Amino acid sequence: MHHVILGAGPAGVIAAETLRKHAPGDTITMVGDEKEPPYSRMAIPYLLIGNVGEHGTYLRKSLTHFDDLKVEMVHGQAVGVDAKARTVTLDNGKVLNFDRLLIATGSRPASPPIPGMDLPGIHPCWTMDDARAIMQRATQGARVLQMGAGFIGCIIMEALAARGVKLSVVEMGDRMVPRMMGPTAGNMIKQWCEAKGVEVFTKTKVEAIEKGDAGAPLKVRLSNGKTMDVDLVISATGVKPAIGFLENSGVTCLQGVLTDEHLQTNVPGIYAAGDCAEAFDKVSNKTIISAIQPNAAEQARVAALNMVGRTTALKGVTQINVLDTLGLISTSFGNWEGVPGGEHVELTDASAGRHLSLQFKDDVLVGCNSVGWTDHVGVMRGLVEGQIHLGAWKDTLKQDPTRLMDAYLASAQAQSGWNGAQDERRR
């Protein structure tokens, strides 16, 4: 049996290790499109800060790890898949035959259609080459403009601020992290960043980037009428699944590669995992892409087990974001924006920089987010992912949202006891 894995990120690595553990005699080929050993993109900000060197970003510290596992590493990028012929074509012309295929190609930065985006000194913060280029320019006192203040953007911003640059952030949304925070929470994060010396423009776009004069490499024109001279522009305007090579392959794609509970696509023997996979989420009751590393790891494990005939179902997709923005902790779980017909409660202490929002559907907590509220973060996640019925505790939480721990202990134990009683009746 020949297993081909497209992608050498966290999903690809864990899939290869799982395959080798359960199929010691099978052939495994992993395709990566970067020259470095497999590494974690989430470690790049720590590289920028200086907390780790390049070796510290590697997913496995031994440089012979994949040789030891007898996993063949192939450098290249997939440009086509023929599901009927069971072949993958790479950009170097090489054709790989497969019995089982895992698509774990992750995401690619989305480049906004702005004049001047191809000028030197404009970079996403996505690859090791990007990190090297950024470190050359993002020196103490350098003028840096970052486009985008989403989740990834805030992580990059933290690293840039630690390098001592003069940082400005432009976000087209009406608040920071608009895809994980409501208006109150997002604006609290903005105020925090401004107090830390970061210039933040919301409801603003970059209209054009031009070559600067002798005093600055780049000149940036904003939609608010402001023009800025900068040394470096960081593009953090979002990512999209890297699945263009699947066009006309026969593999069904929506936003990502559509999978079932076994991470198998519509084509038997072809699977997907990680940031490119669209999997079912039991909390929102729909298929979603949840581009976080814990999901990539679990999806890869489940896909690999099914690839070797060990039928395993994905329990669900984790919708969880915990963000440290210049020392301010914020969280987002599940349907933080609420659901139709649902109820919600908010508690805000602006003077203390704390905010808590809970979203309910019937007596189940379906989502929540918080700013500066580090108490019971695990409890919030447990209530949302466990879909625990709160009963009368829902009304208690609507009166006092801080009683999350009490609600969890009482409701989780009650639900566990009810489930146990149901199991006893079935015997």
Structure description:
With 427 residues, the chain is an alpha/beta fold. It folds into three domains: 176 residues, FAD/NAD(P)-binding domain, CATH 3.50.50; 116 residues, FAD/NAD(P)-binding domain (3-Layer(bba) Sandwich); 100 residues, 2-Layer Sandwich (Enolase-like, domain 1). The chain is built from ten helices and 26 strands. The protein has a five-stranded parallel beta sheet. The chain has a five-stranded parallel beta sheet with strand order 9-16-10-11-12, with helices on one face. Strands 22-23-26-25-24 form a five-stranded antiparallel beta sheet, with helices on both faces. β24 and β25 form a beta hairpin. α1 runs parallel beside α7, α8 packs parallel to α10 and α9 runs antiparallel to α10. The longest helix has 23 residues. The radius of gyration is 23 Å and the shape is globular. The protein starts with a strand and ends with a helix. The relative contact order is 0.11. The C terminus is likely disordered.
